[in-house]
C-alpha cells in the first residue's frame, strides 16, 4: 500500500527558533543593568531574535572580548555555538558539546540536547534528531516539552523505517490526551496495519478520525484494514457511509479497494464500476494486476469490448503469469466479439507462455481450433498435431482428432494429407470421403501444374473411394482431361465415357464438358466419325453465347471432322458459321475453308478464302500456308507462272517459315515444267544446301538430277549427291546409331552423360547433318542442369547457323534465359521473333506471356496492357496465362498509383486464379488497401490470403509482415508484436524473418506511457479458467 502522505510541515509545531530559545524572550524582558558592557550582549540577543545569526555571533564575541568573567560570558559562549548551529557551520556541534562538558550544571547545558534534537528534526535530518533526542534528560523538561520530544523521536524513527521503536513510542503517546494524541494514533495504526495487527490498527485509526487534520487521511487506511481482513461487506458499508464526505483524500485508492472487494465477492458488475473509477481517475497508468482484474470483471459481465481494451496492455507487458492469463482471456473476449483473427493471435501468445501449464493447454486448444476455423488448414494441421503430441491425454483429444481429419481434408498440403489418411488402418466412410476429396484436390493441383501422369494417378485414387457421386463425376472428367493432355486418347475416352454412365451427370456441368472432351479425344485419335458425333451433340446442347470460346472451337473441330471424312459441304457450312460468329480463330476457318473448297473443285472460291487470311490477318500463323495453298492450286491447274509468283511471295515474305522448303520444291517443279531448268536447279540446290535434312531433300535430289540432265549439267550432280549422303546417313549407319544413343540419354534425363555423348558425336562427325540437332540437345541438357552460360553459348550457335529444325525452340529458350536474368530488352527481342514464327496457339500464347513479362520489367505499361489484352480476349489460353494476364493489368494500375482500378483487376484475377498468380493478386490487393489507409479491409484480405493460398510461402510471409503493419497503423501493438514474433519463430524464409525482426525492433523502440511504480503488497490470486 502507498505510504501515508504525512509531512512534519503539517504538524502544529513552533518555529525552530522558538523551540531553541525559550529563555531569550523572557530574558530580554528582564530589567537589566544598562551598563556599557551590556550593549554587545543585548545587541546579540536582538540579532538572534531577528535570526541574523552571523551578526549575533559577532556581537557575543565582542562581549566575551571585554573579559567580564560573569554568567553572561558563559551564556554568550552558548549563543555563539547556537548561532554556528543555525549557520550550519561544521564546528557547531563540537562547540555545543564543549559547552555542555565545560558547564554541565548550567541551565543552558541542560536544554542543549533538546534544542539540537529540535533543530535537526526540523531539518529532516532524522538520524541526528534521534541521536540528540535520546540524550535529552526528559525529567528536566516540562510535560509539554517531554511529550513533544517523545513524538518527534517517534516520528524520526518512523521516517527511518525503524517501526518497532516508533510503534512503542506512538503507543505510549496515544494513551494520553494532548496535542499529539491523534497523530500518534494515526501512526500507531499505520504501523499496526503494516505488522498485520488489523484489529489494533482499526481502533487506532478510528480514534484518529477525531482529528480534523487526520480525518481526510484515515478512511483509506480503515478501508484497507477491512480489505486485508477480508471483511468486504463491512468495508463496502464503511465506504458508502463516508462517500459524501468531500474532504476525504485518496479517493481513487478507496475506489480501487472497493472494486477489489466487490471483485473478491464475485460481484463483477459493482467491481467494474469502482475499478474503472480508480483506473480512469488515476494520474498514471494503473498497475497491471489492477487493470487485469478490471478486464476480468468486464469479461464476466459480458462487456467484451471493455475487457479487450484492458486485457491488451496487460498481455503486452513483460511475460509472466499475469500476462499469460491476460492473453488467454483477451482471446476469449475477442471470440465473444466475433474477432477470430485477433483471438488467434492472443491464444498463440498464451500458449507460448509457460507459467501456467493448464492455461497453456487451454490456450493451445483454442489456438488449434481457431486455426482450423479460420480456414488456415495448413497451419491447423501442424498445430493440431503439435497439440496431440504435447497433450496426449487431454480432455480435448477427441475433438482435436476430429478437427485434424477435417483440416487434412481442407488442407492445400495434399501430399501430407494423403499420406496421413493412407496410414489409417481402419477406414471409416468419413475417412474415405476425406480421402476421395483430398486425392481429387491433389489431382486438380497436379493437372494445373501440367504434371499429367501424376494427376491421373491421383484421380484414380479418388475414384477408388466413391463416397460422393458428384466428386466421382468430377474426378472422371478431370482424369479424361489429364489423359488427353498426356495424349493418351483411348484412356481419355474411357474416362469421359464414365461420366456419361453416371445418371446424375446429366445435371452437372461435366456432362457437356465431357462431350467436348471426348470429341477432342476421338479427333486426336483420328476417329473423326465418332468425334463429329460428339462435337455435334455438344453444339446442339450448348448455349452459343454462354460458353462462346468452347462453342466456337467445337464448331471448327466439327467442321474439321467433316473435312477429314470428306463431307465437304457440311465442313464448309460449319466453317462459314465459325466465320460469321467472328471466332478468335477466324483466320483458321478461312484457311480450312479454302482447303476444302479446293478439294471440292471450287478453286476460285478457295483462292478467295486464302486471300482473306492474308488480307485480314497479315500476322496470322496461317498466312504462309495460305500463300502456299493458293500457289498450289495454280500449280495443279497448270498455271505455273502464277504458281511461281505465289511460291515466290511466300519464300520472300516468310523466309523463316517451315513451309519454305516445300515452296522451293514446288517452285522448282514449276520452273522445270516451264523448262526454266537453271532456276529449277537453283531452287533444288537451295533445299540441299540449307535444308539438308528436311524431308523434301530426297525429292529435291531427284528433281536436281533430272533438271541437271535436262540442262546438260549432269557433272554437277555428284557433289550434291555426296552432300546429301553425308547429311542423311542410313538408319543403320554408325553415326545415326550413336546419335540415337545420345538422345536416349537425354530423354532418360541423364543430362551430364548426354552432354558427353553428344560432344563426342560432334568431335567424330563435325559435318554431319545431325550436328546442329546434337548441339541443340547439348544446349537443352545444360539448360536442365541450370548451367545457363553453357546453354546460352549453344543456343546462340544454333540461332546463328539458322539451319536446324530447332532454331525456333532455341530462340524461345534464349528469350526465357534473358527474362530470368532480367535482361528485359533482349528477352523482348527474342519473344518478338518467337511470336512472328509461332506455328500454333501455344507458341503464340507463350510469346505473348513472355513479352508481357519483359515489358513489365522495363515499366512499359502500355505494351504490358496490350499483350495482356491479347491473351485475355483471344481465347484458348491456358488458365495460368489467363490468370497472369489479369494479374498484370492489376499490377500496372497498382504501380501507377491507381489503387481502385488495381483492386478491381485483382478481384477479376481472383475469380479464376487459385495458383501463385492468385496469391500475388490477393497480397497486392491488401497492399493497395493499406496504402489507401483501409487497414481493416486490408487485414480481411490478408486473412483470406493466409486461408486460401497458404501453400505459397513467399506471399504468405509478405502477407504476415503487412498484417503487422496494419496492426501498427490501428495501434494494435499487442497483435503486431505477436504476429512478428510468430514470423520469427515459424517462417522458413530468412528474408521475411529479417524484415520481421526489424519491424519488431522498431515497435519496441516506440515511446511508452508512464507506468505506476508503487504496487499493492498483496499478490495476485489467479482466477479459474472456466468461462
From TrEMBL:
TPR repeats lie at residues 110-143, 512-545, 552-585, 883-916. Keywords: Repeat, Signal, TPR repeat. SUPFAM superfamilies: TPR-like. It comes from the Bacteria. Residues 600-688 form the Ancillary SecYEG translocon subunit/Cell division coordinator CpoB TPR domain. Residues 1-28 form the signal peptide. It holds the Pfam family TPR_21. Residues 1013-1027 have a biased composition (Acidic residues). Residues 1003-1027 are annotated as: Disordered. This is Tetratricopeptide repeat protein. It comes from Rhodocytophaga rosea. The lineage of its organism: Bacteria, Pseudomonadati, Bacteroidota, Cytophagia, Cytophagales.
Amino acid at each position: 500500500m502507498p505510504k501515508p502522505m504525512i509531512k512534519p510541515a503539517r504538524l502544529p509545531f513552533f518555529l525552530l527558533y522558538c523551540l531553541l530559545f525559550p529563555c531569550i524572550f523572557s530574558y530580554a524582558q528582564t530589567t537589566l543593568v544598562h551598563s556599557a558592557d551590556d550593549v554587545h550582549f543585548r545587541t546579540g540577543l536582538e540579532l538572534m531574535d531577528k535570526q541574523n545569526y552571523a551578526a549575533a555571533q559577532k556581537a557575543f564575541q565582542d562581549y566575551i572580548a571585554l573579559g567580564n568573567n560573569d554568567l553572561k560570558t558563559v551564556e554568550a559562549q552558548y549563543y555563539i555555538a547556537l548561532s554556528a548551529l543555525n549557520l550550519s557551520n561544521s564546528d557547531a556541534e563540537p562547540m555545543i558539546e564543549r559547552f555542555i562538558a565545560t558547564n554541565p550544571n548550567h541551565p543552558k547545558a541542560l536544554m542543549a540536547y533538546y534544542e539540537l534534537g529540535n533543530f535537526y528534526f526540523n531539518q529532516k535530518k532524522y538520524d541526528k534528531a534521534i541521536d540528540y533526542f535520546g540524550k535529552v534528560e526528559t525529567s528536566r523538561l516540562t510535560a509539554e516539552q517531554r511529550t513533544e520530544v517523545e513524538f518527534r523521536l517517534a516520528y524520526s524513527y518512523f521516517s527511518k523505517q525503524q517501526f518497532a521503536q516508533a510503534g512503542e513510542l506512538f503507543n505510549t503517546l496515544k494513551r494520553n490526551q494532548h496535542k499529539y494524541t491523534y497523530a500518534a494514533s494515526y501512526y500507531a495504526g499505520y504501523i499496526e496495519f503494516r505488522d498485520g495487527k488489523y484489529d489494533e490498527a482499526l481502533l487506532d485509526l478510528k480514534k484518529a478520525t477525531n482529528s480534523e487534520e487526520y480525518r481526510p487521511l484515515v478512511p483509506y487506511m480503515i478501508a484497507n484494514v477491512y480489505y486485508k481482513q477480508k471483511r468486504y461487506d463491512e468495508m463496502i458499508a464503511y465506504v458508502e457511509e463516508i462517500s459524501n464526505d468531500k474532504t476525504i483524500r485518496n479517493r481513487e485508492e478507496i475506489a480501487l479497494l472497493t472494486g477489489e472487494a466487490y471483485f473478491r465477492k464475485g460481484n463483477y458488475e459493482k467491481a467494474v464500476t469502482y475499478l474503472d473509477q480508480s483506473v480512469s481517475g488515476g494520474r498514471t497508468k494503473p498497475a497491471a494486476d489492477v487493470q487485469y482484474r478490471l478486464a476480468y470483471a468486464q469479461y464476466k459481465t459480458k462487456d467484451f469490448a471493455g475487457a479487450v481494451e484492458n486485457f491488451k496492455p496487460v498481455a503486452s507487458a513483460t511475460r509472466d503469469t499475469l500476462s499469460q492469463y491476460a492473453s488467454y482471456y483477451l482471446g476469449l473476449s475477442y471470440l465473444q466479439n466475433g474477432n477470430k483473427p485477433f483471438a488467434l493471435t492472443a491464444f498463440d501468445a498464451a500458449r507460448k507462455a509457460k507459467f501456467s501449464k493448464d492455461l497453456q493447454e487451454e490456450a493451445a486448444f483454442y489456438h488449434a481450433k481457431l486455426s482450423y476455423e479460420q480456414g488456415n488448414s495448413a497451419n491447423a494441421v501442424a498445430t493440431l498435431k503439435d497439440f496431440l503430441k504435447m497433450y496426449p491425454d487431454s480432455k480435448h483429444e477427441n475433438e482435436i482428432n476430429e478437427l485434424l481429419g477435417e483440416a487434412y481434408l481442407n488442407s492445400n498440403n495434399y501430399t501430407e494429407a494423403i499420406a496421413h489418411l493412407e496410414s489409417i488402418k481402419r477406414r471409416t466412410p468419413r475417412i474415405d470421403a476425406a480421402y476421395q476429396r483430398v486425392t481429387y484436390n491433389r489431382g486438380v493441383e497436379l493437372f494445373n501444374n501440367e504434371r499429367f501422369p501424376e494427376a491421373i494417378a491421383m484421380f484414380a485414387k479418388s475414384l477408388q473411394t466413391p463416397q460422393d457421386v458428384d466428386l466421382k463425376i468430377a474426378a472422371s472428367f478431370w482424369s479424361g482431361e489429364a489423359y488427353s493432355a498426356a495424349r493418351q486418347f483411348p484412356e481419355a475416352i474411357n474416362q469421359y465415357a464414365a461420366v456419361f454412365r453416371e445418371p446424375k451427370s446429366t445435371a452437372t456441368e461435366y456432362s457437356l464438358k465431357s462431350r467436348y472432351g471426348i470429341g477432342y479425344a476421338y479427333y486426336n485419335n483420328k476417329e473423326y466419325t465418332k468425334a463429329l458425333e460428339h462435337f455435334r451433340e455438344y453444339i446442339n446442347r450448348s448455349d452459343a453465347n454462354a460458353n462462346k470460346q468452347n462453342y466456337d472451337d467445337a464448331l471448327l473441330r466439327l467442321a474439321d471432322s467433316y473435312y477429314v471424312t470428306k463431307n465437304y459441304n457440311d465442313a464448309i457450312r460449319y466453317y462459314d458459321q465459325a466465320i460469321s460468329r467472328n471466332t478468335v480463330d477466324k483466320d483458321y476457318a478461312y484457311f480450312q475453308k479454302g482447303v476444302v473448297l479446293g478439294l471440292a473443285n471450287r478453286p476460285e472460291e478457295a483462292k478467295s478464302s486464302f486471300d482473306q487470311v492474308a488480307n485480314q490477318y497479315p500476322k496470322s500463323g496461317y498466312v504462309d500456308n495460305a500463300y502456299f495453298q493458293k500457289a498450289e492450286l495454280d500449280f495443279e491447274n497448270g498455271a505455273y507462272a502464277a504458281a511461281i509468283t505465289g511460291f515466290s511471295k511466300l519464300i520472300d515474305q516468310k523466309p523463316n517459315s517451315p513451309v519454305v522448303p516445300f515452296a522451293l520444291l514446288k517452285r522448282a517443279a514449276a520452273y522445270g515444267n516451264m523448262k526454266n531448268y537453271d532456276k529449277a536447279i537453283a531452287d533444288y540446290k537451295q533445299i540441299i544446301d540449307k535444308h539438308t535434312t528436311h524431308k523434301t531433300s530426297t525429292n529435291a535430289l531427284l528433281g536436281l538430277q533430272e533438271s541437271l540432265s535436262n540442262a546438260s549439267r549432269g557433272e554437277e550432280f555428284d557433289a550434291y549427291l555426296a552432300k546429301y549422303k553425308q547429311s542423311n546417313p542410313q538408319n543403320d549407319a554408325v553415326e545415326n546409331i550413336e546419335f540415337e544413343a545420345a538422345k536416349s540419354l537425354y530423354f532418360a534425363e541423364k543430362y551430364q552423360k548426354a552432354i558427353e555423348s553428344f560432344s563426342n558425336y560432334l568431335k567424330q562427325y563435325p559435318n554431319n547433318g545431325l550436328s546442329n540437332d546434337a548441339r541443340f540437345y547439348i544446349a537443352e541438357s545444360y539448360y536442365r542442369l541450370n548451367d545457363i552460360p553453357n546453354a546460352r553459348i549453344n543456343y546462340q550457335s544454333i540461332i546463328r547457323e539458322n539451319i536446324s529444325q530447332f532454331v525456333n525452340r532455341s530462340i524461345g529458350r534464349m528469350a526465357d534465359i534473358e527474362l530470368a536474368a532480367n535482361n528485359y530488352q533482349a528477352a523482348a527481342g527474342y519473344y518478338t521473333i518467337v511470336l512472328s514464327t509461332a506455328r500454333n496457339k501455344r507458341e503464340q500464347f507463350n510469346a505473348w506471356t513472355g513479352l508481357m513479362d519483359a515489358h513489365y520489367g522495363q515499366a512499359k505499361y502500355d505494351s504490358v496492357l496490350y499483350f495482356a489484352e491479347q491473351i485475355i480476349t483471344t481465347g484458348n489460353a491456358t488458365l495460368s496465362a489467363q490468370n497472369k494476364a489479369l494479374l498484370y493489368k492489376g499490377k500496372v494500375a497498382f504501380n501507377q498509383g491507381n489503387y481502385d482500378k488495381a483492386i478491381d483487376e485483382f478481384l477479376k484475377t481472383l475469380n479464376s486464379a487459385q495458383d501463385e498468380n492468385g496469391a500475388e493478386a490477393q497480397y497486392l490487393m491488401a497492399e493497395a488497401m493499406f496504402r489507401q489507409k483501409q487497414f481493416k479491409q486490408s487485414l480481411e484480405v490478408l486473412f483470406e490470403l493466409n486461408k486460401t493460398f497458404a501453400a505459397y510461402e513467399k506471399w504468405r510471409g509478405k502477407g504476415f509482415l503487412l498484417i503487422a503493419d496494419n496492426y501498427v497503423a490501428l495501434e494494435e501493438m499487442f497483435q503486431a508484436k505477436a504476429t512478428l514474433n510468430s514470423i520469427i519463430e515459424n517462417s522458413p524464409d530468412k528474408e521475411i524473418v529479417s524484415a520481421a525482426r526489424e519491424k519488431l525492433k522498431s515497435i519496441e523502440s516506440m515511446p511508452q506511457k508512464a507506468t505506476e511504480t508503487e504496487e499493492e503488497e498483496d499478490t495476485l490470486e489467479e482466477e479459474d479458467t472456466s468461462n
